[in-house]
């Protein structure tokens, strides 16, 4: 009788789990970099918008509006 011995190394399920983990990490990394790029783009747009906008001073409350509060 010959006995079959499994080859040393990861089992089929471990290999499958490693593949799933690698793919998940790749997706997460891609989403993270896309989010960082979007954040930088939006920040630059906001700073540009704020630089072009005239600076306004906050209005002071009048006596009538202070009495209502």
Alpha-beta classification: mainly alpha
- Terminal residue distance: 95 Å
> What integer value in Å does the Rg equal?
30 Å
What's the number of helices? 2
Average residue pLDDT: 84
- The oligomeric state is single chain
Explain how this protein is built.
This protein has a domain at 12-52. It is built from two helices and no strands. It is elongated and about 95 Å long. Helices cover 68% and strands 0% of the residues.
Brief synopsis:
With 69 residues, this protein is mainly alpha-helical. It is built from two helices and no strands.
Which key phrases capture this entry?
mainly alpha, 69 residues, single chain, elongated
Produce the secondary structure layout.
Layout: H1 12-52, H2 63-68
Biased composition (Basic and acidic residues): 28-53
Biased composition (Low complexity): 1-12
Region (Disordered): 1-69
């Amino acid at each position: 009788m010959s006995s079959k011995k499994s080859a040393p190394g990861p089992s089929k399920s471990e290999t499958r789990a490693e593949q799933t983990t690698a793919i998940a990490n790749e997706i997460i990394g891609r989403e993270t970099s896309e989010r960082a790029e979007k954040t930088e783009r939006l920040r630059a747009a906001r700073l540009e918008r704020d630089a072009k906008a005239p600076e306004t001073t906050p209005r002071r409350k009048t006596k009538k509006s202070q009495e209502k509060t």
